Amino acid sequence: METALDEIRSELKALGEDDDIVSIDTEDLHAHGYSEWSTVNPDGLPVAVVYPRSTEQVSVIARICHKYRIPLIGYSGGSSLEGHFSAPYGGISVDFAYMGKILQFNKEDMDIVVQPSIGWQDLNEQLKQWNSGLFFPVDPGPSAKIGGMIGTNCSGTNAVKYGTMKDWVINLTVVLADGTIIKTRRRPRKSSAGYNLNGMFVGSEGTLGLVTEATLKLAIVPEETSVAVVSFPTIRDAASAAAGVMQAGIPVACMEVMDDVQMKVVNLGGATAPKVWKEAPTLFFKFAGTKASVQDNINRVAAITKANLGSNFEFARSESEQKLLWSARKESLWSMLALRKGSEQVWSTDVAVPFSRLADLIEISKKEMDEMGLFASILGHIGDGNFHESIMYDRTNPAEVEKVEMCVKNMVNRALDMEGTCTGEHSIGWGKKASLLREVGPDTVGVMMQIKKALDPLWILNPGKIFDVPS
Ligand SMILES: Cc1cc2nc3c(=O)[nH]c(=O)nc-3n(C[C@H](O)[C@H](O)[C@H](O)COP(=O)(O)OP(=O)(O)OC[C@H]3O[C@@H](n4cnc5c(N)ncnc54)[C@H](O)[C@@H]3O)c2cc1C
After folding, report:
1. CATH class of segment(s) 2-97
2. Contact, 138 vs 158, CB < 8 A?
3. What is the CATH number of domain 102-220?
4. Helix (H, G, I), strand (E, B) or coil at 307
């Protein structure tokens, strides 16, 4: 390991790099191997963190690690939730913090070339400052960055209209396990040239290669947006209203659900005071388009929600009202985190099912959590049949940890029984490997492992994630 680190330092120095890009600072190692957000944190920390400045530097690092068989773990925003960037086999964490530039902006083509460490919020801020009229619509955790978003094939509240990360990638520059640099495609929005390598790297969690550049599509900022909030007597009424909106083909920009507990949590958290929310299952809508289409969509959604026992239909008449109405959704996870006491943590997990099954799944899962005496809230991207459960638990209490694990396992199994998936957007990491196996079966995981073996025969890239390291 020390030989490898010395070799990395001296090769980069020979290439003209002045700074020492290798850190072995204890706090740095901890921050790159442990996550407060994560449902799991396997034992082990990286032995070093490297901070490359270019694709070429990443290639040198990979070549040397390949020579000495040292694990390499990509790190961008560090907001992933299933132990994704943990280092159970030690090795080197590659933090792209110094690779956060916009390299090329092609306004006419509505695309942009970026390095992996630019955050999606910063990217949008820059596009706004340039008055470009364009934005990047994929919106996961606030601190997420493009490299990690590609790693997890993330999405967020905008997915019901704009799709997920995989839909926004035009091409990628990737450093492979042995240091080889490849580019997956050129720059047109469509291409049928050979295998879809974008599809292979997006969602591969840094197990097949390290992404050092990405060309991303951009969307037009809509002329008009608005927000509406409606509450319902039960989660089933909310879900059937949401299904009605989808089946009517109303192009909502976002459609989110929060249960009564989550609404109470927002009130308790106080982040949206003085506004006090009705503590009932609630749907949040965003509308986007032309003035006329937004108004038309609001009217149609209001009619559908009313027919499903929705009440208190509130819609925003100004930008500040939009912010206020959306704030409960925006503050939801922070509000839950704010309620932690002592050694309590929040286990945040996601599953997705065909959306007609969502109400069944939520109802059974809520009942089980209540019966087990767990404090848990639900929120979800209901238009995609994707929902999140946030469960409060004491990490130092083994009985409580066991209960949470049981609830999550049961929820995942129920989702799978409903032809769903163990994760709609958070992806597998270290925490959901058994669920993936159950979801797709050993033959499909076997194909994934063959792909891994072909690209990374020494198994050095983020080992132990998605599936176990073969013995
Ligand atoms: C408050 C909060 C809200 C969230 N909401 C959502 C949500 O709505 N939707 C959603 O999908 N997720 C959500 N998440 C999860 C998280 O934001 C996403 O998983 C996000 O995509 C992770 O990006 P990151 O930059 O933080 O990645 P990281 O945590 O740094 O890494 C994620 C994975 O990608 C790999 N990786 C990192 N950089 C590279 C690279 N350059 N090349 C190859 N592999 C790389 C890592 O090794 C790791 O396996 C939320 C998280 C939080 C904390």
Report:
1. alpha beta
2. yes
3. 3.30.465.10
4. helix
What the block records as the tokens of 351 is: 């599953």
Q: What is the pLDDT of residue 315?
A: 87
**pLDDT for 20:** 83
Task: Tell me what pLDDT residue 337 has.
Answer: 85
Task: Identify the residues whose C-beta falls under 6 Å from ligand 1.
Answer: 37, 73-81, 84-85, 96, 116, 140-141, 144-145, 147-149, 151-152, 154-156, 205-206, 210-211, 333, 425-426, 462, 465
HEC-encoded secondary structure of 361-380 = HHHHHHHHHHHCCCEEEEEE
CATH architecture label of 340-427 = 2-Layer Sandwich (3.30)
> 3-state class of 209 per DSSP?
coil
Give the closest residue (by CA) to ligand 1 atom 17: 141
* Distance between Cα 144 and ligand 1 center (Å): 5
In this structure, the residue with its CA closest to atom 50 of ligand 1 is 141
Q: Where in the chain is the domain with CATH 3.30.70.2740?
A: 340-427
- The model's pLDDT over 341-389, given as tens digits with 9 standing for 90+, comes to 998 999 999 999 998 899 999 999 999 999 999 999 999 999 999 989 9
CATH architecture of 224-334: 2-Layer Sandwich (3.30)
Taking only Cα atoms into account, the Rg of the chain, rounded to an integer number of angstroms, comes to: 23
Q: CATH 3.30.465.10 residue ranges in the chain? A: 102-220
What does the pLDDT average to over 424-431?
A: 97
In tens, the pLDDT along 295-322 reads: 999 999 999 999 999 998 998 888 888 8
